[in-house]
Structures are given as C-alpha cells and as structure tokens.
Amino acid sequence: MRLFFFTIYFTFYSLNLCFSQSIKLEMQKLKKENKKSTNIILMIADGAGLSQITAAIYKNGNKSNLENFEVVGLQKTHSANSLITDSAASGTAMACGTKTLNGAIGVDAKNRSYESILKICEKKGYNSGMIVTSSIVHATPASFYANVPSRAEYQEIAYQLSKSEVDFFIGGGEKHFIKRNDNKNLVNEMKDWEFVSNLDQFNSSTSQKVGYFISYEEPPSLIEGRKPLLDIGLNSILKKLNSRDEPFFLLVEGSQVDWGGHDNDFEFVTSEYIEFDRAIGVALKFVDENPNTLLVVTADHETGGLGITSGNIRKFNPRARFSTKGHTATMVPVFSKGVGSSEFSGIYDNTEIFYKMMLQVK
Ligand code: MG
Ligand code: ZN
C-alpha cells in the first residue's frame, strides 16, 4: 500500500517536472525562433555615387569591402517634385516607402504621416539603433523616427526622437535637445534613457536605452578628428543589439560624404567613404557570424556630380572634378548580403528599398 502511494506520488511528481520542463523548453524554442527573425542593418553613405565609391576604392589601395557582395542593384533617387532629391525625401522613401517633396520627413507629398520601417519593427517587438556621423536629428536619421513637413524643424525632430521607441543611438547635435526655444531639457525628460559621454561608458552601460552624443553641434569631419570612428562605434552598437533576444533594425549613416561633395573637397569625400567602408567590413563580419541578418548598403543620392577624369595608375591615385555644388539625379548602387538579399538586384525606385526590407519583417 505504502509503495502504491509512493508510486502515485512519484508519478505525479515526475509528470509535474515534465510539465514545467516542457513549458520551459517551449519558451526557449519560442525565444530561439524569435531570435531567428531577421535582423536588418541598413547602411547609407549620404551623397555617395559610383564615382565617390570608385575613388575611395582606389585611394584605399584598390580594395574595398564592397567587393565581398554578390548582389548589386541600382536605385532611382528622384523625389515627388524633383529629379534631384534631397536627403529628406530620399531618406523618407527608404524609411517609409513613399515618394515625397524635397525637405519633407516621414510624410508624403500631401503631408500625410507614414510609419517608418524602424517604427514598424519596434511595434513587432524588435529593438532598434542608429549610428550616424552627423547630428542625430539630421534629415537621414530623422526620416526613420520623425514626421515633419520640414527637415529644418530640428527641435521638433529632437522632441519626436525623445518620444520614440529607438533603443540606442550614437550621433551629434545635443544642443537640439537641451538648448531649446520651449526651454525643455529633453535629456532630463528622457527618464528611461541613460546618456553617456564616451564609448567605454556606452559599452559598459546596462540600461535598456542608451544615447551617446558625440558632439554638441554637428560632429567634425574625420580629417578634423571625429570620434568614435564609425566602425568602432558600429561594433559597439551591434554588440548591444545582439545581446538581446529580439531581432533588431539598425540604421548606419556615413553622413559626411555628402558634405565633402557640397564643398567640392575630394579628400573630404574619399576619407569619409573609406571610413564608411571599414564600417561595412564590421557589418559583413556580423552577417557572417549571425546569418539571420539582412545587410543593405546604399546611398540616398549622389552629391557633387563627381567624375574621375585623370590619375596615376601605378599609385592608383585618382584625380577628379566636381560638376556641381549640389546633388545629382544619377542612380546610386545598392549592395546586399544575407537573408532576402537577392531581392535587391535590378533597377528600381528608392521606395522599393523599404518594401524589399519589409519582406523580412515578421
Ligand atoms: Mg544624411
Ligand atoms: Zn547634400
């Protein structure tokens, strides 16, 4: 009799154990499946057309991480009202999938707001990050979290970032958060954020949301000593995003290739792109180690109408001429690798970048 009860008890005990164990396994499986969802890394070199890229490759000893990509496409960059886009309209096209007026951020030509891929991902439980070499409220990153008719509304854009679901950012422009016409101090108001002042603090922070302003105004150029280097910063933000169980969306911008183009400064352009190329190397390594990732590397438009018109073949030293101080309508290349990358071959509108990336958002 005693043995009987003991057996009953033991059976229930082991059943119970089995039950809780299977729940745990099921949960682990769910977590893993979630982890298997595709991470998306979108890298934009602002103003980098084929001549900027070609020049940077030669200046970098005739080598580039871009040569590791097998899928290459071309995107048409025109906006809703101009053959020559600006970074707001082209950023919005890639972030939200709609053509819009030059200058507009996250809204279409009729000023209707659109959700960006970053926001859609956040709603589905993804984490998100942004690392840029301009201010974090500049047109390109702003297209991924803000909805404003004009890119010049920096203080409103900063306010919208403070209310956004973004988890990590590295970029410049602290003043738009703390020296404001409405006298708000957004950094103080962003209670669930930790703000750090160097990369070591960023790396060691355990906060859920971390912001790192690399400058008060716009960051300096690489030649003038901008820190952290984009590849080093990218490595840090990737580590943070990859330490979470959920998939992520990450925007990386080499913002100042464009500024070199506006200045018609060839050294400025190529040094900025060579730094961006090193960051591409970091992203490629991440894709190798985390195959559940889509990496897309592109530009928002070409700046400067650059042509490589002479040079030295023995030193691979290109010389070039600019044909404008502004942007041009020339198509820009799209390089992609990882899950869903084959979608990105061919010629298409910049709005397709959004839809092709969205195929991976579940
Ligand atoms: Mg930009
Ligand atoms: Zn520009």
What is the assigned CATH homologous superfamily of the largest domain? Alkaline Phosphatase, subunit A
Q: What compounds sit in this structure?
A: magnesium ion, zinc ion
Briefly note the CATH topology name of the largest domain. Answer: Alkaline Phosphatase, subunit A
Biggest pleated sheet:
10 strands, mixed
**What structural class do the secondary elements suggest?**
alpha/beta
H/E series, N to C? Answer: HEHEHHEHHEHHEHEHEHHEEEEEEEH
**Strand order in the largest sheet:** 5-6-4-3-7-1-8-13-2-14
Question: Can you put this structure into words, describing what you see?
Answer:
- The protein is an alpha/beta fold.
- The chain folds into 2 domains: 1-35; 39-358, Alkaline Phosphatase, subunit A (3-Layer(aba) Sandwich), CATH 3.40.720.
- It contains 13 helices and 14 strands.
- The chain has helices spanning 2-36, 50-59, 87-96, 117-123, 139-142, 154-162, 175-178, 186-189, 199-204, 230-242, 257-262, 266-289, 351-358, and strands spanning 39-45, 71-76, 127-135, 168-172, 193-196, 209-215, 248-254, 293-298, 302-303, 307-312, 317-321, 327-328, 332-338, 346-349.
- Helix 10 (230-242) packs parallel to helix 12.
- Mean pLDDT is 93; it is low at 10-18.
- The structure holds magnesium ion (MG) and zinc ion.
- Residues 46, 87, 134, 138-140, 253, 255, 258 line the site of magnesium ion.
- Magnesium ion (MG) binds next to helix 5.
Detail the topology: elements first, then pairings.
Blueprint: H1 2-36, E1 39-45, H2 50-59, E2 71-76, H3 87-96, H4 117-123, E3 127-135, H5 139-142, H6 154-162, E4 168-172, H7 175-178, H8 186-189, E5 193-196, H9 199-204, E6 209-215, H10 230-242, E7 248-254, H11 257-262, H12 266-289, E8 293-298, E9 302-303, E10 307-312, E11 317-321, E12 327-328, E13 332-338, E14 346-349, H13 351-358
Parallel strand pairs: 1-7, 1-8, 2-14, 3-4, 3-7, 4-6, 5-6
Antiparallel strand pairs: 2-13, 8-13, 9-12, 10-11
Helix pairs in contact: 2-12, 3-13, 10-12
The structure holds magnesium ion and zinc ion.
Magnesium ion is lined by residues 46, 87, 134, 138-140, 253, 255, 258.
